[in-house]
Amino acid sequence: RLLIKGKNEDNEKFEMKVGVMREMQMEHAKCALSAAIKFLQVKMMLYHLHLSIHLF
Q1: What is the pLDDT, as a whole number, of residue 46?
Q2: Largest CA distance in the chain
Q3: Tens digits of per-residue pLDDT, 1-56?
Q4: CA 16 to chain CA centroid, nearest Å
């Protein structure tokens, strides 16, 4: 009985850790994605600026 109880507690702790890690990975992915989008936006702005300087 005690062994089974200990195992269940370990499983719960493990599942919590996995859940936390997933949350962190999701947050990290969101940050990376928004950073990439911002980078692309800036790149496009600079590209348009570059073009307009050369055209006019």
Answers
A1: 94
A2: 82
A3: 667 677 888 889 999 999 999 999 999 999 999 999 999 999 999 999 988 887 76
A4: 19
Locate 45 and state its tokens: 């702005």
Q: Report which residue type is found at 22.
A: R
Annotated domain spans of the chain: 1-56
How high is the pLDDT of residue 27? 95
Instruction: Write a three-state SS string for the chain.
Output: CHHHHHHHHHHHHHHHHHHHHHHHHHHHHHHHHHHHHHHHHHHHHHHHHHHHHHHC
Residue whose tokens read 């990439």: 36
